[in-house]
Structures are given as C-alpha cells and as structure tokens.
Design a protein that fits this description.
GO terms for molecular function: ATP binding; ATP hydrolysis activity; flippase activity; magnesium ion binding; phospholipid transporter activity. It is a multi-pass membrane protein. Keywords: ATP-binding, Magnesium, Membrane, Metal-binding, Nucleotide-binding, Translocase, Transmembrane, Transmembrane helix, Transport. This protein is of the alpha+beta class. The chain has 5 domains: 156 residues, Calcium-transporting ATPase, cytoplasmic transduction domain A (Distorted Sandwich); 68 residues; 212 residues, Rossmann fold (3-Layer(aba) Sandwich); 255 residues, Calcium-transporting ATPase, cytoplasmic domain N; 237 residues, no CATH class. Helix content is 44%, strand content 16%. The strands form 8 sheets. The protein has a 9-stranded antiparallel sheet, with helices on both faces. A 6-stranded antiparallel sheet has the order 3-2-4-13-5-11. Strands 30-31-32-29-15-33 form a 6-stranded parallel sheet, with helices on both faces. Helix 5 runs parallel beside helix 12 and helix 5 runs parallel beside helix 30. The two termini are 27 Å apart.
Length: 1167
Amino acid sequence: MSVYESRSEERQSAGEQERYLQANNEEFNSMFGYPNNTIKTSKYNIFNFLPLNLFEQFQRLANAYFLVLLILQLIPQISSLAWYTTVIPLIVVLSITAAKDAIDDLKRHQNDNQVNNRSVLVLMNGRMEKKKWMNIQVGDIIKLENNQPVTADILLLSSSEPYSMTYIETAELDGETNLKVKQALQVTSEMENDLNQLSAFNGEVRCDAPNNKLGRFTGVLTYKRKNYLLDLDKLLLRGCTIRNTDWCYGLVIYTGPDTKLMQNSGKSSFKRTHIDHLMNVLVLWIFLFLGCMCFILAIGHSIWERKRGYYFQVVLPWKDYVSSSFVSAILMFWSYFIILNTMVPISLYVSVEIIRLGNSFYINCDQKMFYAPKNRPAQACTTTLNEELGQVKYVFSDKTGTLTRNIMVFNKCSIHGTLYGAVYDRFGQRVEISEKTEKVSFSYNELADPKFSFYDKTLVDAVKRGDPWVHLFFRSLALCHTVMAEEKVEGELVYQAQSPDEGALVTAARNFGFVLRSRSPETITVVEMGKTIIYHLLAILDFSNVRKRMSVIVKTPEDRIMLFCKGADTILYQLLLPSCTPLRDVTMEHLDEFASEGLRTLMVAYRELDKSFFGAWFRKHSEVCFCLEDRESKISSIYEEVEKDLMLLGATAIEDKLQDEVPQTIKTLNKAKIKIWVLTGDKQETAVNIAYASNLFEDDMDGLLFVEGKDDETVEKELRSALYKMKPESLLDSDPINSYLATKPKMPFRIPEEEPSGNYGLVIHGYSLACALEGNLELELLRAACMCKGVICCRMTPLQKAQVVELVKKYKKVVTLAIGDGANDVSMIKGIGQEGMQAVLNSDFTFCQFHYLQRLLLVHGRWSYNRMCKFLSYFFYKNFTFTLLHFWYSFYNGFSAQTVYDTWFITFYNLVYTCLPVLGLSLFDQDVNETWSLRFPELYEPGQLNLYFNKKEFLKCLVHGIYSSFVLFFIPMGTVFNSMRSDGKEISDYQSFSLIVQTSLLWVVTMQVWTVVVGIALETTYWTMINHLFTWGSLGFYFCILLFLYSDDGVCIILPNIFQFLGVAKNTLTVPQLWLSIVLSVVLCVLPALGYQFLKPLLWPLSVDKVFDTIHGLRHPLTYPVRSKLKMTGSRRSAYAFSHKQGFGPLITSGMFMKSKWPRKNITHKK
C-alpha cells in the first residue's frame, strides 16, 4: 500500500512518469490520484469569482488609479471632491465589467456541463449501468455504440465487428472525415460482449504518462502473467466518433484533462488587443501630464499664498496643519490630483466593453454567415478581440476541412488517349458545369451510388458499347485498392477507405458498372456490368511515400495473371514500355490540363505477367517478407522487379472539393494585403495542388521556392538561396537587419516589411521547419516567408503550427489570425471548420465556411476597428476638454482647487450626459456599407497600419482638447463679465458661471460627435434614428436634470446640503448671455475640426482616400459579377492522390477483417 501511496505522491509532486492501472479495480487506481473525466474550460466559480475578477480588473491601470483616488478622497486634508464622485462611477464600471465576464464564463460553464453530463454505459458489478461522463474513472470498462462520441482515451477490448475492428471518425481531432480503423488485441477480443468475462478482466496496463502527442502511444498490457504490446492502433481517443460499429468495449486509460484532446488544448492565455496595450501606454502618458499640471498648479498656489494669501489670514485663515505656503502647496498638489482625475476616464473601459459586446452581437446575428446545412451561425466566442479583426496582416490556415471539404469527387479521366469529363454545347464549345447542367443517368446499373454525379455522356456511352480500354480502365480501379466493402443490407454498399481518394475512385468504378461487392484475403468480387466475377488476389503491393504508387496482382477467371498499378505520374511514366510513348505524351497533356484546374491526378497502368515469372517472383517475395534486416528496402526492391514494363491505361483527376468561394476569398484577402500561410499535416504535392486551386499560388508567379533539407546546413543553404532570389541585398552585411543583429544580437526588435524583386511562393517541409526553428535559422526563415505571396508548410505537427504563429508574432509585431477545424489546430488557434468542435471550444470566433472569413474581416472587423478608433478619439477629446477647464479656472480662484462645475455634473458627465452620443455612433456607424467594404478590400489597409488611432492621433486629441477648453472657459467668462440681467442683478456669480460653462461644454462635445467621429470622410457617416435619438436626446435629458436639480422647487429644497445650486437653472436659462456663449463656443470649437476634416485628404492623403473618392463618384453600389470557376494555365501536377499513410493492405492479406472470429486455440502471445 505504501508503494502505491508513494507513487501517488510522486505523481502529485514531480509529475507522472508512467501510467499504471488495473481494470475493474477502483480501489487500486484511486491510490494514484488520477483525475476523473470532468473537463473545465471556465475560469471562475461561485467562490472565486468576486476576488479573482476584481483582481483582474484592478490590473488595469485606470481602475487601480481610481481606487487610489478614492482612498485619497477619504483624507479630509486634501479632499476637494465628495467621495461619491469617484465611488459611484467606479462601482458602475466594475459591476458592468464583472457582469460581462460572468456571462462569458457562464457560457463556458454551460458548455462544460453539457459535455460532462453526457451519459455512457459503464460495467458495474456485472451489469451495464448509465453513468455521467464526468464520473468515469481510470480503469473503468465502458460500452460505446454506433455514432457515439468516445468518452475518454480508452484501450479497445472488443467490438461487434470481425476481429474486434472498430471504425472511427477523427474529424474532431484532425478535421479528416474519412474513417480510420482500430483493432483490439486478440486476447481481449475473445471476451466479445460477455459481461461475465469483462467483469472478471483484471489486466494491468503500464503506458505513457499523459501527453499531447496525437500520433503516439506505447504501453504493455499484462494479463494472465503474459505481456501484450500496445500501440496507437488499439487506443480510441476522446473526440473520435464510433462509426459503422454496433458496439465496442474499452478500458479507460486517460480521463478529463489527461486525455490527448485536452492536452492539446493547452492553457488559454488572456488575449489583449493592440488597442488595449496602446491605451495602457496612453494612460501612463496622461498620468505624467496630470502630474505636470498638478505640479504647476501647486507652484501657482504656493506663489499666491506667499504673496496674497498670507495677508488675508484674517478672512481666510490657514488650517492648523498648514504651517507655510510650501506645506499648503503640497496639500494642494493632491487636491488637484483628485480634481483632475477625469483626465483618466474611468468609464472608458466599460464603454469599450459595451462597444465590443455590440459588435459581437452583429457577428452572431449576421444571416450571411449562417450555415443552414448545420443550422449553425457564426459566433464571437470572446468579445475582447473584435477590433483586432480589422487589423489582421497574417492568416494561418489549416487545409483539410478548412480550405477543403475533405470530400473527394471523381471529376475527369483520360482513357487510352481520350479525355472524358468535359461538357460541350451543341456548337462544340466547352461549357462550365453548374447546378443546371444535366447529369448522366446510371439507370443501367442497379448498384450505382445515387449521390455520385457525372456530366459527360460520352463516357457512359463508351461503357455501354463495351469499349475494351474503358472497361479495362474501370476494372483496374475496381481492383487496385485497399478499400473494404460492407453490405449489411442487400444492394446498399458501404466502402471503408483509409483514404478518401481511394473511396472516390472505387465509387466511380462502381457507378460506371464495375462494382466492388466484397473481398476476402484471397479474392475480390466485382460485379462487372451486372455480371459477378471473382478475381483471386495474389498480392498487394501497398502504397508508401517513397514508392508513390500501389499495385495489386490478381488472377482472372480466364487464368490470366494481371498486375494493376496506379500512382504518381512522375513515377509511373518511367515504368512504361517504350511502345507507350505516343500515348504517354497525350496522357501527360491531359494531366497538365487536369492539374491546371487544381485536380489531384494519378496515372493508371497494367501488365500481364507470365506464370513462371510470377511464380519465381512470388517465392522471392515470400522470402524477403521474413527477413529481419533491412526488410523495407528489400521488399521495395522486389516490388520494383514486377512493377516495370507497364502498359498505360490512362489517368484520373479527382477534385478535393474546396469549400464554396475559397479562391475568390483568398483573392479578395490578398487585395486587402492579408498574407495567407497554409499550415497542414498533409503531403507536399497535395498541399501545393490545393494552393494553386485556391489562388494562393498563381501560374504567373516568378517561381516556387522549396525548402526540403533534412539538416541545418542544407536548410540554411536553401533559405539563403531563396533570400538571394527575392532580395539579393538581404544577404549583405550592410543590410539594415543584418547590421542591427551584428550590433544588438539579443535585443528584441521588429522586422520591417520587405519588398521582393518578384512574386514568389514558398513551400517548406515539416522536418526542414524543425531544423530552421531549432537551428537558429528562424530569422532567415521568417524573412524569406514574409516576402512571399503565399506560404505552404506541410507535414507539420500541432506544436510546429503554434511555433510558426508565435514566430511571426514575435518579430513582425502584427495581428495574426489562426484558423483551423481540429484538435491538431488548437495550439495554433488558442477557427473555423465544418467538422471539428474541439477547435470551436478553443477559438475566439467560429463559423462554418472559409469564405465567411472575408465578411468577418472586411466588414465586421473593419467596422469594429473604425468604430473603436472614432470612439477613443472622441472620448479622450471630451475628457481633456472637460478636465482642462479646471486648469484655466485655477488662475482666477487663487489656485484653491475649487471646481468649475457642480459636483453632480462631475459625477454624471461621463456616466450619463456624454456616453450615449458616442456609443450610438460607435455601435451603428458605417463609413461605407458592406457592399463597398467587400468590393474594395483596399479599405482594409488603414487598420493593418493602425492609422486611425495611435500615439499621433492621441496627441491631436490632446491639442484639440486644450484649445476647446480654452475657448469654453474664456468665451463664457467674456459673455458674463460685467454683465447684468434685465432686473439689474449681476449674472457673474460662481453658480451662474458654472452652469453656463457646463451647458456650453455639453453642446460643444455633443456637436463634436459628428465631426470627430467621422474621421475619414464627412459624406460617408452613417446616421440612423438611434444616432439622432442618442445625440439630441442626451441634450434634452441634460436640461431635464438641470431643471430637476437646480430649480427652487426641486430636490434642492429637500436636500440643500447635497444639492446646493438652488434656483440657478431658472435664473440662468432665461439670460441671453447663456445662449450667446453656447453659439460662440460651438462655432469656435467645431469649425476648426470641420476644416481639418476637409483639408486632411487634400494635404495629407491616405492611400484609401482615392478609394473613397471612387465610391463617392459612383451613385449606386456595384453588384458582384457572376462568379465563374477560376481557370489556371501551366504545367504542374499534384503527382499523386493517395492517403499519406499505409492503407489496409496488411489487414486484407492477413484475413483479420473477415466475419469469422478469432480462433480459440493455439493462441500465441508476445512477452
């Protein structure tokens, strides 16, 4: 017992080194302290919400500042304002932010609860009982059924399928929808669904400690004193879904946070926008400016007290704690620090959150981003990053399931020199295939797949008339594969393919009349044009990444031995007979045409073998299969002996269907100067093919640069060669970046944008990337990649995806967006996708189609950025204007820290009087509508360069605020100076002056909404009824409050000590000097702003100003032209369209997929 306890302590302290568990032994497993199956993505709970949320909120400088300010206001010696002027706004801001955080976290709790409360069948005391997912423990045996998600990482014990095979879909993990196959150990599969045997099962498992490596699992099962090796093929991972399997049993190995899916999720970091970081810097600037002003006013107070105040102590006696003018000045410094606190507006952050919440609402409710087939809208999972969507410079995208649908469709083919698949009209002109194009009928074939579509009738006619080459071509497709067929209901065939490519080819052969019906280790049954034919399977020469081809050798009913081969044209054309040269040339032209359309191509060939030759070859093959040394290379050599002198049959073209409008989307994003990098685990040929099909690469580029080295030296040579091609001077010591690195090699810095000498694309392999990232070549890699139009990184691990994203963020200091659909993309995201919900749970924004990205960025993102910038410009301006009036007033009140406003006006200024106008425009403003935003992607550029709000724009707001405050103080002073009312009474008293100043201030800042906020062009401001209501309603509301608080029959009578402006409203609103002050102040403050907005595009034009001129010159929004399929010219081929791992070949030849069960005797074990 003590041993296990010590192991448990070891797990807790030093980290788990190895997992050790026993089936059906809860007491034993509990000693190791393994977690249960609960997942938690939420941040708060009912106990830690208040302290943790307050702690996070007070990390903001402004909130911490106001907390300090509140403490200062409680000190009577320096307090110049009532404590409630600070505490009320602070409580409101903290409460609103806390409510928003609580709502966001509540959604996470709901998602967690939904997952944790799913039910699963668990073996308990000899019977199956339902249990919630969160209560599953390591060592439990659970039962999963068809279409049920896998509860935890479990060791497969047995299943309903032959030899305990289980089919799973891994879309949640890697975005791939093609089925994978898992198989249980022979010793556990014998238990089948016998609950007695399963209950008695007490096997012990030692395996890897929890880790995030999706492609690795090693362990040992000890059962009945014998050891059995475990690998990934026997492990079902959480996030997978059971398919085409009635039931299966599994032993829980990893639970909850220990599962590979959750291990890949990583720890979510709190993301702050560039504007958040900028605001923190600006708040520090404001503190310094505030300190300087307080210092100046304190000096002024000291001088005034020494020269004047000292002699008026009889009238204005000093306090007991004031011994000199110096001490009085120190106290006055802190008094002004309190009065001028509105330089740092506490309501700024809560207003920002409201705007972000509103813009998130627009994303969630956008019907043009709603995906009807899955009934799923776009969703902003976080409300803190909306304006970042308007500043994206780099997009990192997964390929499978993100750019593509991962649905392979047989599109075209070339058979014996004839091209099939194109459609022509009655004039002989090729026409584009659309939804209206008539499909060919497969009514002659009862076993045809009704979902299969083809449009060229000439191929069907060739099949019907018995064209021998066409028949041989489809016969080869029906035989040369590792697809397994299931027919649970007669006539309803289900194909299990390790690769969707193979599934597409076999399905095509099926529809044209060559139907794979069934197979065994020795035979393949094919229904050819209604006639059942059984071929004897003699050998499968399975696919590998080195061979880039696969072959089968079969014996026909006519006793002929035939080899059928398909693979990369770059490989197969070298294996053809010389007599095939003319046919090969024609077929290669067809392959070029297929590749120019972005299709995945491969070549099909055959060879008839002499029986004696095959017999000798087969004997050598059998001998090599039992070799222990260098087995793989010997087998490959044996394969090459038979895969030669081939006769060419033709070629196939498969469309890895892109999602809708992917090429147009990438083209549009490129116009917006957004660079797109595709980070994929797929093979290089497929990734490059998709890059061309999706417009990431174009045929008119100056070239593709490949980095494929497997060591540091080779990779460095390839990267330097790429840099030399694009920018030769980048390798010189005089290059600015090289010079900087030579002088300050360890200092952080930002790599500027560099212009290449041409238009290039970069393709880099995963192992080359590893060398570059780990071999101090990251800067060379980054500089080369950033100068390219598009970048493809293939064969990447999830960790490498995250490393690439982090590399760009580290040195480019730009906004990046990572987009993916599977758990292998989670570390990169930290989403879009049609398939994987694990990426959704870890993303900031989710939507179902890649083409929604252009709307998310160019419409919602750009609007959000523009609105936020306009809001900040106005907000800082109105607070500078409001606060600096105290500065000018100080010269007339003896620097006594007397406020120019009523205390309640100070309290309500930001919270009530001025918040609605700017919020109205910040939530509803559109400088141009969505049509223009998508039509002119160039409008996106200012966000990338952060032109609309930066330190320079902030200084403009400060200067404008200083000027406006000067006008707003001296214009009212001038209008009331030595003025009298009609009854002969003076109106230059403090309270009347205060009311005139604050009323003029409100009129000015309200009128500035539609000048400061316009920001780009006056003609494009988007006004709605809500804008008008908020703008003019705020002024109306102010006058209502004015009459309520400042009348002689209002609350002043009830609470005279708190509301001290008794009767001021009635006395002041009737004098003409008030309205003169308002008119003069508005004119003098607004006219310069209008003039600047008018002259700015003329004197200091931006690149987008020409676009605005174009938009203004067009009377009506343009509509998009009818999209046609993008064609590309050139000679490139994807080389081959195979799965990037070995198929079902060994499984087929072993016979382990057949309906007969494991033999009960003579079982051998591995020790």
